[in-house]
Amino acid sequence: MRVTIKDIAKKAGVSITTVSRVMNDKLGGISQETKERILKIVEEMNYQPNALARSLVTKQSLTLGLVLPNISNPFFPEMVRGVEDLANHHGYSVFLCNTDDDEEKEKHYIQLLKEKYVDGIIFSSNSRYSEAHYEILQKAHIPFVLIDRGEEDGNSPYNGVFIDNEKGAYLATKHLIDLGHEKIACMTGPKEVGTARRRILGYQKAMMEANLPILLETGNFRMKDAYTSAKKLLPSNEISAIFASNDVMACGIYQAAYELGMNIPKDLSVVGFDDIQLVEALTPKLTTIRQSSYTLGKTAAEMIIQDLKKAKKETKVVKLDPELVIRQSTRSIK
Amino acid sequence: MRVTIKDIAKKAGVSITTVSRVMNDKLGGISQETKERILKIVEEMNYQPNALARSLVTKQSLTLGLVLPNISNPFFPEMVRGVEDLANHHGYSVFLCNTDDDEEKEKHYIQLLKEKYVDGIIFSSNSRYSEAHYEILQKAHIPFVLIDRGEEDGNSPYNGVFIDNEKGAYLATKHLIDLGHEKIACMTGPKEVGTARRRILGYQKAMMEANLPILLETGNFRMKDAYTSAKKLLPSNEISAIFASNDVMACGIYQAAYELGMNIPKDLSVVGFDDIQLVEALTPKLTTIRQSSYTLGKTAAEMIIQDLKKAKKETKVVKLDPELVIRQSTRSIK
DNA sequence: TTGTAAGCGTTATCAG
DNA sequence: CTGATAACGCTTACAA
Q: φ, ψ for residue B279 (rounded to 5)?
């Protein structure tokens, strides 16, 4: 049996109330002497309060739920780390839930988290935008904040933290334009995915500003598809640069270029999006748009924890700025 | 206020005991009629039992703690996924804890997990083997299983799941030998790290069996160090193959070879270790040793959950078999 | 087939 | 400065 507050009280010859007070540093006013005596016994008996019992009465579990599609997707680990760091810093623990973008699993987890009495949920939903997900969340009556996905409708009625995807794509494209490129293709993600759409928008904006022709080619956010598309695209056009709307696709393009005997950046400049770790291992190192998923996670955790403290809730949406990281896959052709 | 068992009982005109019984499918014998009535009300009022309260009396939280150095390390996400999948399958949730290999944090988290009343802990400790970590765990009196790290002393007194590192290195080296290579170098990790040492052992075993000369070069498990070492090593020797004891170092070797104008696999065969995701994005694709971290996680979770069910505890150590994945970075020179 | 009541380990209220 | 005692939401003998 585990040591409980009762055991401490008995051994110290005081009431459990008193023990509770010293454990929680309640100002109540406890003589220095008893305080020290109790603390010593606590130490001796290696007593740790039962958080379950405590939460039952205080009505807060100091626990958050983190719901995301799949931690194995290289985008998420950093984000998780951000969440965990900040949560822990504020005394919160976090439950990790992988949904595989499956609505049934999402439902299941939200219910589970509710049973576990989490104080808040950080939620990254299915890529395909759907009100349904958020309804489930709403119904659970647990404060939540969306993360990464769900940016699409500007005036979101929910708390959220996102990356400014349009801006990122704009920066990437602008970089190529500034280097003197004119035939610049955009390898896109699936059109139904919000982040993919926003990136296309950013590309188009930059191209239109420079009065250059739009050239879209779909790669579905996948290495293989990007490889295939590039294999077709590159030989037939005089494209001198590609903006790949994620890094994984940039890898596919690297492969295609390699097989076509094209040198990057000599014959082809490439910019990616994400700045996932592997990108530094490529030859040449990939110039890309960094979206700090760590900051994303940290910000989301911060938001929800602050929210929990406040009485009056207000909806807040944060958009983080992406950043161009110039490495070796682009070159000036002026 | 949240709906409680009382609310349901009142609305259904029964005692809370009865409600509890239907919620838990206790055989007790409940009339079909009342059962259905209660279930309907539960549905209507969207009632979910409070797991905290339940755990308080049942003495089990259906919760596990997963303690690891850093989820951002590309080795872990898959492992986490394995743990989570299996845990969830058995109705367990998991708390994620990042320790950064810091002993203070480890202590902190173990205490926290104890407070949260987790039923078991899956623990991946500091690379440097130290009894201290395990003592802390022991003292918490929570069942635990070590994962990945801690393999070193064969007759471990603790439950654990590991990869057979020696065997993996042996397989890698043997593969190169079978291809006809004779001057095979081994790029090693830090000698103090157990996994690194075991991989050296495997390499040496294969080389000695074939009567070939040992050639060790340290790369510290890091890309940059491997790059530097390779840059020095490759020009001066007639090395035709390298076994890199992790994939990240293989990347460094790729870079060095590229800059030295050596073609992989024409001029140099390379085998890695880990099979991290990025490896398929390399050109040419890396031949490597796959250690299924997913299985690692899954097995660990399985072990601890089984352990929780049993009355008589017995220490168990599982060693998983690594697997050679042949891709395009090696070639026969017979 | 159902209900009463004790108890899980805490905190919070109120009294002294 | 300290202590009874109720309460949190649930499960589980034991009764009926």
A: -60, -25
Q: Map out the domains of chain B with their CATH numbers.
A: 5-49 (1.10.260.40), 59-164+293-321 (3.40.50.2300), 165-290 (3.40.50.2300)
Q: What angle do CA B213, B215, B217 make, to 5 degrees?
A: 175
User: Is the CB of B281 less than 8 angstroms away from the CB of A97?
Assistant: no
Q: Other C-beta atoms within 10 Å of A315: how many? A: 12
pLDDT bucket at A43, cuts 50 / 70 / 90: very high
**Distance in angstroms (rounded) separating the CA atoms of residues A234 and A268:** 9
Strand, helix or coil at B318?
Answer: strand
Neighboring chain B residues of A283 at a CB cutoff of 8 Å? 254-255, 258, 283
A293 CB within 8 Å of a chain B CB: no
Q: What is the 3-state secondary structure of chain A?
A: CCCCHHHHHHHHCCCHHHHHHHHHCCCCCCCHHHHHHHHHHHHHHCCCCCHHHHHHHHCCCCEEEEEECCCCCCCHHHHHHHHHHHHHHCCCEEEEEECCCCHHHHHHHHHHHHHCCCCEEEECCCCCCCHHHHHHHHHHCCCEEEECCCCCCCCCCCCEEEECHHHHHHHHHHHHHHCCCCCEEEEECCCCCHHHHHHHHHHHHHHHHCCCCCCEEECCCCHHHHHHHHHHHHHHCCCCEEEECCHHHHHHHHHHHHHCCCCCCCCCEEEEEECCHHHHHCCCCCEEEECCHHHHHHHHHHHHHHHHHCCCCCCCEEEECCEEECCCCCCCCC
The percent of chain B in helix, strand and coil, each rounded to the nearest 5, is 45, 15, 40
CB contacts, 8 Å: B59 with chain A = none
- B 72-101: CB under 8 A from A: 72, 74, 76-78, 80-81, 84-85, 93-98
pLDDT in tens, B249-302: 999 999 999 889 999 999 999 999 999 877 877 888 999 999 999 999 999 999
Which residue's CA shows the smallest distance to C1' of C12? Answer: A57
The confidence score (pLDDT) of residue A27 equals 61
What sections of B210-269 are H helices per DSSP? 223-236, 247-259
Q: Looking at the complex, does the CB of residue B46 fall below 8 Å from at least one CB of chain A?
A: yes
Mutation pick from B76, B115, B122 vs chain A, by most beta carbons of A within 10 Å, is B115
Confidence bin at A321 (pLDDT 50/70/90): very high
Closest CB from B93, B278, B281 relative to A95: B93
Point out the residues of chain B with pLDDT beneath 50.
Answer: none
Residue B95: list chain A partners with CB under 8 A. Answer: 93-96
Which A positions 126-165 lie with beta carbon below 8 A of chain B? 139, 141
User: Which pLDDT belongs to residue B31?
Assistant: 79
Host H or E run for residue B55:
helix B51-58
User: How many angstroms separate the CA atoms of B203 and B208, rounded?
Assistant: 9
Per-residue pLDDT reduced to its tens digit, A156-207:
678 999 999 999 999 999 999 999 999 999 999 998 888 899 999 999 999 9
Token pair 């960094």 in the structure block, residue: A290
Interchain CB contact of B280 with A (< 8 Å): yes
Tell me the average pLDDT across A19-35.
81
Look at residue B246 in the predicted model and tell me its pLDDT: 93
Q: Can you give the pLDDT at residue B79?
A: 96
Residue to mutate among B43, B45, B48, B79, with most A CBs inside 10 A, is B48
Given an 8 Å threshold on Cβ–Cβ distance, is B283 in contact with A115? no
